[in-house]
Amino acid sequence: MGLQDQKASEFKRLLKSFAFAWSGLMHVYRHERNFQIHCILMVLAIAAGFLLKISLVEWYMVIGAIAAVLSLELMNTAIERTVDLVTEEMRPLAKAAKDAAAGSVFVAAIAAFIIGMLIFTPKLIEFL
């Protein structure tokens, strides 16, 4: 296999990995109510950011908070599915793993809410 063929093969693998990632996102979006809620809140936060003309630094913080919550929600789903695959019984360790994963989303969501309040409240007061 020549260098050109090898690069083409690597590019195809890269495209496949993006397709798998997109498939995972769509699966979680279709089947997880909390992920759907977070996506709706993301759209609202982005719309508010444009409407209230937040600064570049504020955009960094909002996008970082959104990415953290959505990423952790995806990981939470992955952990829940994996635990369900391993055991259908109620086991204390399985419950602990699921609860810890859900807790990580909760912590990120609280932090995102606080970041949103710190950024948007003064702008909303000014806007109104």
TrEMBL record:
The chain crosses the membrane at residues 35-54, 60-79, 100-120. The keyword Transport does not apply. One of its GO terms (molecular function) is kinase activity. It is found in: Cell membrane. Pfam families: DAGK_prokar (PF01219). CDD domains: UDPK_IM_like. It is a multi-pass membrane protein. The keyword Kinase applies. Belongs to the bacterial diacylglycerol kinase family. PANTHER family: DIACYLGLYCEROL KINASE (PTHR34299:SF1). This is Diacylglycerol kinase family protein.
